[in-house]
Amino acid sequence: MKLGMAVVAWARRIKRDGVTLWFAGKHPQTPWYAKALGLFVVAYALSPVDLVPDFIPVLGYVDDVLLLPALIWLTVRLLPPEVVVQCRAQADEWMRAHGAKPRSRLGAALIVVLWLLIGMALWRWLGPYP
To answer: HEC string of the chain?
Structure first.
């Protein structure tokens, strides 16, 4: 049972750090490169659209289980320590008050635009040539 409790604790930390990135994106001491990566990660994490749809067996959950936690970890590592402490405190408070992660229509729109751009690029690359 210890392994199950460790996995649950890990998942809660990942969820909290996702919300932490939300607050870090607004923090004035966050470097631009961390904000850029954080914006992408938060938009993707909070959007209802996945890059790899969950209905695809095995691959559908790879982004949820591996890619997203790795990107969150990397972005948190790019933040200054004092920003991490402040933003984690804000995230803990927000999660206590609301009980769920925030939703982002902008994040959903960014993912849809990304899918459209990838589709257009594939169409041009693989499509019929005149």
So the answer is: CHHHHHHHHHHHHHHHHHHHHHHHCCCCCCCHHHHHHHHHHHHHHHCCCCCCCCCCCCHHHHHHHHHHHHHHHHHHHHCCHHHHHHHHHHHHHHHHHHCCCCCCHHHHHHHHHHHHHHHHHHHHHHCCCC
